[in-house]
Amino acid sequence: MTVISAEDKKPRWGKLLTLVGYAATFGSAVPVGYCIGVINSPASYVKAWCAQSLLERYDANITPSGLDLLWASIVSIFLVGGAVGSLGGAWAANKFGRKGCFLISGFLFAIGAIMFFFCRMANSVEMLILGRLLVGLASGLTTAALPMYLTEIAPLAWVGTLGVFCAVGVTGGVVVGQVFSLRDVFGTAELWHYAMSFYIVIICICYLPSYMFPESPKYLYIVKGDREGARRELTRLRGADAVDMINHEIEEMEIEANAKVQTRSFGSVLKDPALLLPLIIVCCFQGGQQLSGINAIFYYSVSIFEKAGLSTTDAEWANLGAGCLNLATSFLGPVLMARVNRRPLMMFSSSICAAFLFAIAFVLYYIEAASWFPIVCIVCIMGYIFFYQFGLGPIPYFIGTELFEVAPRSVAMSMGSLSSWACNFIIGMAFPSLQNAWGAFVFLPFSVTCALLFVLTKFYVPETRGRDPSEVAPLVSKGFKSKVK
């Protein structure tokens, strides 16, 4: 076994690693959030255009209920595409490589942006729907493959830091989409198609240097069996002088390659009892992240701000402020992941969020009981958003890369991403109806979800920070009988 010198033990943020980390995040993760955040503000204008387009092209006078159904389809087709894209992420990550998935998602995002820009000129609702499907596919592929790519090119000490880049990028993209869809920017009846397609500027800038990006050394060594290629990419990432560190990483890959088959199919992963618990953890973390109510909070916050006495316009700006708080807090993620263990962060975040969500439900129910209750409700919303980014926000995105070795990792990340998109779809479709039926109590299931994630983390999630997946895997190999403390 190679002995690593004290100099080589130091984490290395070389120029290439920095370029890939930021360019891949801005070029791939930010468009995911952008496509989520941009669709809400100009909704009334887009719906009116859809009705007019159908009337002019097909002489079809759509009813209000039919228009609502069409709009729900336009919104939800993105989530369907995300689920399909994440499900195919395992196959694509092994077939085309981690870098290849990044390039494919960029191509799909670009085609979607072109569809958005020209759909109004072509007077085609179909182009709008197809564009939403394409960016959904790209988003699902991104959330499944990008965390894998970033963590596999990172030194062990920086795995958690690069792992949260995807989460930060998606969060930032939501805010950017909200900004460009404001009425003072592109959120008007004449310019909404500019708002929906503007992210292509980010795509063009960030994909320009992609020819320089390395492929994942672990993918090359373990999946493709390309030893020389893996060493070459490691040398580019770590520096030619980090010989001992490179040799150590190569030896770790050799051990993993000899111990495991090169790739694992969906069936073999799902049937392997040693992988059951980590697979449940990944799916529960990513699905629970959506069921914790973050999207519902943003959906509901405008009406809360209005109850606090703000005008509709001011409430929309306050909602944007909440999104900015979410983004600002997410920047703590890389620092926290580098210095604090995963288990305490996740338990702290989920427990505090559970308490805030319960408080939101209670205060909302008695909102008229006291004049200061609306202010308390706003404080609870901001508190939930703040503490969400301590664990619930960033950790689910990359926990699969720390629980699974390379062979089954792509399947696990795809299943986790599928769980996330499916739960996102459930929230998007069910929340308005549940809100009408349950009122303020609609936030109680979110509180329960956070509490269950706390329990799962406390009893079954091992600490993964600073550990190679080969060290973590045996800790969860006995299913719910595993002793992870």
TrEMBL record:
Pfam family, one: Sugar_tr
GO biological process entries: fructose import across plasma membrane
UniProt-recorded Gene Ontology molecular function terms: fructose transmembrane transporter activity
Lineage top rank: taxon: Eukaryota
Acyltransferase found in the keyword field: no
Annotated membrane topology: Multi-pass membrane protein
Protein location: Cell membrane
Residue stretches making up the Major facilitator superfamily (MFS) profile domain: 21-465
Transmembrane regions listed in the UniProt entry: 16-39, 69-93, 100-123, 129-149, 156-180, 192-213, 345-367, 373-399, 411-431, 437-461
NCBIfam families: SP
Record-stated family: Belongs to the major facilitator superfamily. Sugar transporter (TC 2.A.1.1) family.
Name recorded for this polypeptide: Solute carrier family 2, facilitated glucose transporter member 1 isoform X2
Source organism per UniProt: Musca domestica
Gene: 101896162
